[in-house]
């Protein structure tokens, strides 16, 4: 189980650095960014690679501003938010 403090940190980082493109609660604003609700929860390596080094033109690299611990926290937040959303559906 991920640590709640880690999810909390991930949520703060998400709010500051990712939300403007990926939307509140991972709900993309529709501006062409990847829908993080669909990101495979069993692929932390792909997550790290994309967040640290960016992807195509749209997704910026973050390796100058985020630590590996930050990326772990962001991934924990993304997976926890996916699960919370699923729990809310019938
Ligand atoms: C400037 C807008 C922008 C910001 C800021 C941004 N993203 Fe993205 N992100 C994108 C776009 C656009 C894509 C789609 C890239 C593509 O596949 O062409 C994307 C894709 C992704 C993907 C999927 C990559 C894959 O493997 O297919 C992940 C994961 C992701 N972003 C996480 C994050 C996280 C975490 C943050 C905050 C640290 C963040 N993004 C900040 C625009 C952004």
Automatic annotation (TrEMBL):
GO terms for molecular function: electron transfer activity; heme binding; metal ion binding. InterPro entries: Cyt_c-like_dom, Cyt_c-like_dom_sf. Residues 5-82 form the Cytochrome c domain. Keywords: Heme, Iron, Metal-binding. It comes from Immundisolibacter cernigliae. It holds the Pfam family Cytochrome_CBB3. PROSITE patterns: CYTC. This is Cytochrome c domain-containing protein.
């Amino acid at each position: 189980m991920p640590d709640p403090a880690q999810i909390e940190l991930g949520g703060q980082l998400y709010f500051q650095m990712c939300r403007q493109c990926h939307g509140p609660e991972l709900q993309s604003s529709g501006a062409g960014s990847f829908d993080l609700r669909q990101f495979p929860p069993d692929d932390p390596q792909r997550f790290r690679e994309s967040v640290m080094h960016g992807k195509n033109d749209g997704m910026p690299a973050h390796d100058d501003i985020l630590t590996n611990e930050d990326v772990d926290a962001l991934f924990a937040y993304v997976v926890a938010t996916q699960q919370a959303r699923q729990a809310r559906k019938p």
